[in-house]
Amino acid sequence: MSAPSASLQPVAASAPGKLILCGEHAVVYGCPAIALPLASVRAHVQVAPGTAGSGMHIAAPDLGSAWSVQQQPDNPLSELVQAALSRLGCAPGGLPDLTMTIRSNIPIAGGMGSGAAVATAIVRALVAASGVELAPAEVSALVYRCEQRYHGTPSGIDNTVIAYEQAIWFVRQQPAPLIEPVAIAAPFRLVIGDTGVRSETRLPVGEVRRRWQADPKAFEALFAEVQQVVTQIRAALASGRLAQVGPLLDANQSLLEQIGVSSPELEHLVAAARQAGAAGAKLSGAGWGGVMLALVDEQCSGSVAAALRQAGAAQVLETLVQ
Ligand code: PMV
Predict the structure, then answer these.
(1) Disulfide-capable partner of 201 in 13, 156, 227, 286 (CB 3.0 to 4.6 Å)?
(2) What is the pLDDT of residues 94-125, one digit of tens each?
(3) Please, is 30 exposed, middle or buried when counting C-beta atoms within 10 Å of its C-beta (0-12, 13-18, 19+)?
């Protein structure tokens, strides 16, 4: 590719947030998990040509941060930009004169994949600017390396569901993860409640690792139970037996509590959703904060959303999964 600045028109790209329906944490240890794209919240990146010789700048005005890739080459997003440009055929050292502006309405450290969505939107924007095609698997691989910089040992589920932008069954394995589409025979509705508590993914993930190392037998038994629940949820979704899904989500929540990644704030919202008529509810993502999800039908979705607000949720979203 010629340096993207040469013929660049302003381009824009975006990427969705994500929700882990079931299987978080156990997925780090090779068990399956199901993840969904969350189209109602997105990260957006605009690319505009800079003046000749200005170099490459990244700005996140909502966070009050801006930097030059040349001056901060070790910033994980600078590294991502350089890796993406190199994959797109931009000559090493020949960074184009560009300004990338990031905006996102995905809560940071809230379990909705904010970091992976921003990184995916950056790669998609560079792809659009270059005119070169990149398959979702390649976008996902670039974003995975960026996720490793932030989280240490991510399973890869966030970058995968966001880059593919479809419901996936994900199993971390070597040499490459197993990624399959999830069949959804009957659309279903989720209400998402944000505790407003921000928790970095690597903290509960690190704590689970320590506990697993201290008592591998107990933790592997818990992970095996999660695997059973996730497998049953997949089968229920594929056959449209939604009545089975709620209790399975509750079972997954109980296992996450035993794994040690729930919190009083999450459990308060989970209880409020169940009392308001949700068929099942659980935390979603790394836990200790962030979001929970509740399976609802059309009749009770309004009252579950109201109950979550009443119980102190910082934000409430609803999504129809189909
Ligand atoms: O990115 P989060 O916070 O939604 O959670 C990631 C899910 C985990 O299973 C806890 C970690 C991982 O890498 O899969």
Answers:
(1) 286
(2) 678 999 999 999 988 888 999 999 999 999 99
(3) middle
